[in-house]
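job 3f2a | input accepted
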Amino acid sequence: MDGVGAIMLLDVYALAMSRDASPVAVFLNTFLLLRERCGGDYTVQHSDSVHEIVFSTPEEAIAYCCEHTTTCLSLYWSRIGSEGPHFIHVHFLEDGGLVFGLSIPYECSGEAPVAWHPLFDELMNFTGADNGYCVAECPPAGTTDEFRQISKAYREAA
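job 3f2a | predicted structure (158 res):
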């Protein structure tokens, strides 16, 4: 195994311009048409902070999160076949933000992790976003402000 690094995932994120179901569907169909969802049902906290709501389909969960902008939920899908990113994900942030994400395999040779991938530019162009970044195997920032801060630091380091 000398000279061969570990295969890791590079997560590519962009902050969406709005929190709507239509761009989510277009994002999913553009970047990973053949996919299957990861996990089972989707559980969110009801706005009364006491009850949970369980959705059996991603479409139901997405519609609810778009309507209830303080709902926080992450949804993941894996690719079917060998084309496209390994995973595609959508993150609804508790402050109303929406993050689109892609997970792409890359070889880590022990040096600094890859800081950029061609899909980063494609995702940024697709979303029209000003804020995005790449990171090795890490979930996105939890709030829109934090996401913007990381994105700014990413741009300054590039």
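job 3f2a | The longest strand covers residues 98-108.
job 3f2a | closed
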